Amino acid sequence: MSITVTIGEKEYFAGIPQIPFEGPDSDNPLAFKYYNAERVVAGKSMRDHFRFAIAYWHTFCNSGDDPFGPGTQPLPWLAGDDPMRVARQKLDAAFEFISKLGVPFYCFHDRDLAPEGDSVHESEKNLQTLVELAKAKQQASGIKLLWGTANVFSHPRYMNGAATNPDFHVLTHAAAQVKAALEATVALGGKNYVFWGGREGYFTLLNTDMKRELDHLAMFLQKARDYGRKIGFKGTFLIEPKPMEPTKHQYDYDTATVIGFLRRYGLDSDFKINIENNHATLAGHTFAHEIQTAADAGLFGSLDINQGDPYNGWDTDEFLHNLYDAVEIMLVLLQTGGLESGGMNFDAKTRRSSTDLDDIFIAHIGSMDVLARALLIADEILHNSNYLEKRRQRYASFDSGEGREFEQGRLDLTELADLAGKWGEPKQISGKQEWYESLLNRFLR
Ligand code: XLS
Ligand code: NI
Ligand code: NI
Predict the structure, then answer these.
(1) Of 345, 153, 165, 149, nearest to 228 (Cα)?
(2) What are the residues whose beta carbon lies below 5 Å from ligand 2 (ion)?
(3) Nearest CA to ligand 1 atom 3
């Protein structure tokens, strides 16, 4: 399953060939040092461990603007005044980039792919036109769609929310967009469909009926699910939690909150969770914690792979480059069965001051390598150390005798209390945190 380089009307990344694997000794910034798609680790190729996907919005639509200044990165495919022409140029650039990088998947919002028109109908037509072109590009390159989604947060009409907007009229526009984005996802064979509730939240409870808004959100998701299934979508619906930004309090705060929501409204057999590292940081959790929480609930879906900055409180969407964190993630993924129909979507952008076109390649290659290296390290820790045995031993008192009976529900509170009286004060047992941390560091090589 290899990817064929696909160039459109114009070659945007001229001089850059398909990125080769050259191994850890290479100093070529445009080569992989660790990511070798065919290499099998723990019974699976690296391609299947990661299922990397390129985020259309950051990589092809965003030229580095921030609240304090305009874009700095001259992206040649965004030049021109005709929005449909620009959309076609963007598609050319996207498939050239993704195929040269050799990545198997991509992800988009409706508005990344095609511009909004003057009416609901015209917006739908624009999207359909681009979907047909994208279909041909997918066929020519072998690249597939990991997920589609609708951008129901940028347009000013969504300033008070989309599915949770207090004005029903606004909700209907969100429905029109989600309907068209679901159709696009089905037409392109998307494996998943994502809901990130950008403006689904509130700034002050004084003007907010939270219960009613959450009921509306759930109803909206149920109707989206029903429509998706009706038009033949067999994939997974995903909710992407984020605690804040743009709203002060977002309803999909973190993985645990979303698990509760899905179960409360009976959505947990169609929906799973798409976890983003930077959002975990904002919620005060590690990425590993969020993945473990979702996996333990049987609701782990997919990943938005990036990293935030622990020193400030917003979504900086940096390319993941921290090896230690990457190892923790891969340890969890290897133990929980990993990505099934999910993937690792680069919801990340190059820094505003990284203005060369090849910086986009360097950024993605860097992240793919750090994750591939982390996979090798995590696999070694699991196979060539006593890590698992040591952790299992911590719980040995539940493996037999009364501990076992407790796990089986056969001891009541009085019987438990009697044991405390009989056994007296427990012997102190070290948690050995530094031992575990040193072990991980010993394998970082
Ligand atoms: C924003 C979100 C967004 C989703 C897709 O913070 O991460 O990019 O991934 O709508
Ligand atoms: Ni995201
Ligand atoms: Ni984000």
Answers:
(1) 149
(2) 276, 304, 347
(3) 196
